[in-house]
Design a protein that fits this description.
- The chain is globular and about 65 Å long.
- Helix 9 runs antiparallel to helix 11.
- Helices cover 57% and strands 5% of the residues.
- A three-stranded parallel sheet has the order 1-2-3, with no helix packed on it.
- With 261 residues, it is mostly helical.
């Protein structure tokens, strides 16, 4: 189950930026068969909100009357983006954000972190253990390493250069989101250093020299606005907005807020 190779578990991954009708048809062809191990079959659909309307409508009848041994699990951080007809056929189960102290305790107890090491990823994870584990795993290291350079490039870019940066950053939805997450943390670090001079709450403490230098050239109100607009762009992409268009609008806004060179 952990490696997703159980014969009675099917996980439906997006095809590009959406889940398409042919993928749902493939699921429906498998649904009538008996489970291999005599129990239940589970069809797991992460990011269900990105089903096309055709795919969602194709799923409706089977979702309403699935075979007796079959369970469909639709996962979505944006259930409001699902068709009302899909929502009406589902039993909703909400998972609330985990408080930061509990997240930190879990990282200490289950993943061997020291208390001081667990504090910051727990605060940045937004209540998600999965995100906290990503933050400590180093899997977002490339985006983190590039965030300062991206911010510096934007501060020295004109409109054409900003659009080119948006095109490169929007190569995939996952790359766009990880880059925005890292960029948000970078601007946050500049704001924290500018206002407090404290290093213990920095996401990038290993880059303190750059943070000190860059924090001096931004005003507090500018940094707050940049964090807000970058966060809004991230939310739009998570809700299935076009990553390139969202990043183009964001980067053109950020170059207006950048300090003069």
């Amino acid at each position: 189950m952990e490696h997703r190779n159980h014969p009675d578990l099917w996980v439906l991954q997006p095809d590009g930026n959406s889940i398409k009708i042919d993928q749902i048809r493939g699921v429906l062809r498998r649904a009538p068969y008996r489970s291999y191990q005599g129990g239940r079959k589970i069809f797991l659909i992460p990011r269900a909100e990105i089903m096309t309307a055709e795919a969602a409508n194709c799923l409706l009848k089977t979702l309403e009357e699935p075979p007796g041994d079959t369970i469909f699990i639709l996962i979505s951080a944006w259930p409001q983006a699902l068709l009302p007809t899909i929502l009406s056929r589902c039993q909703r189960c909400s998972f609330q954000a985990i408080p930061a102290p509990e997240l930190a305790a879990g990282l200490v107890a289950r993943h061997g972190l020291k208390e001081e090491e667990a504090r910051l990823p727990a605060l940045l994870a937004g209540g998600s253990m999965g995100k906290a584990l990503t933050l400590i795993s180093g899997s977002n290291g490339e985006a983190r390493a590039g965030a300062g350079q991206l911010a510096l490039s934007l501060s020295r870019s004109g409109p054409l250069e900003a659009l080119e940066l948006a095109e490169k950053t929007a190569e995939s939805k996952d790359k766009a989101l990880s880059s925005l997450e890292a960029l948000l943390c970078w601007y946050r670090d500049l704001l924290i250093w500018r206002e407090s001079g404290e290093t213990r709450y920095l996401y990038n403490p290993d880059r303190i020299t750059e943070i000190q230098r860059e924090a001096e050239v931004y005003g507090t109100s500018s940094l707050i606005e940049m964090i807000e607009v970058a966060g809004a762009a991230k939310s739009k992409i998570e809700a299935n907005a076009n990553p390139r268009l969202a990043l183009e609008a964001l980067f053109l806004h950020l170059i207006r807020d950048a300090p003069p060179v």
